[in-house]
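[stage:ingest] chain + small molecule (zinc ion)
[stage:ingest] validated
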Amino acid sequence: MVFTRRVLTRTYTDYTRYRRYLRPDFLYRCAYCLRHEYFLGGEAGCVIDHHRPQGGPYARPDLVCFYSNLHWCCNECNSIKGDTWPSLEEYEAGRRFLDPCTPEDDHDLHWRVEPDGSLIALTPTGAYTIANLLLWRPHLIYHRAQVIRWEHERAELVRLSDAYDLDEAGHELVAARLAELSSWIEPPVFDRPRRSRE
Ligand SMILES: [Zn+2]
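[stage:predict] done
[stage:export] tokens:
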């Protein structure tokens, strides 16, 4: 998956102000594990990640409020990533975090998702990202396998409902299940609740 950043005409000195742009630009998904906010407790399940970290030996304070250095990211991936950044030697060997806002860093170019939800690294960048973000976490594997099953079931239901002459009740059942599957594959977006002033 590749994300497309908008071109912003203004900048902020408080990076949290970019949140409203980051969420849609990242399709409400974690830049790294690709889980949708829907499965993370909504907007509150994600934070703003500084791709090049704010702290540690490879910190780039000059990029803290730089939009192209910010990624929408789940709390888990963000806390695991922390200030991790490759050394110059690692970087030159391609062992670095992928940046899914560039076409050459499409996740699918750096790893393959197996039917059981596990990841097979295809490049040093894929291997580094998987290892340093622990993308082999069991619940991530389970989630990826679930999405694959939903996509398969949706395709099969469409095929079967076209192939068989269903009665009205059958059509209703299929339509309801298709709507349910679609809402998990392309989930709805829920903004963080704001307290009323009343
Ligand atoms: Zn994540």
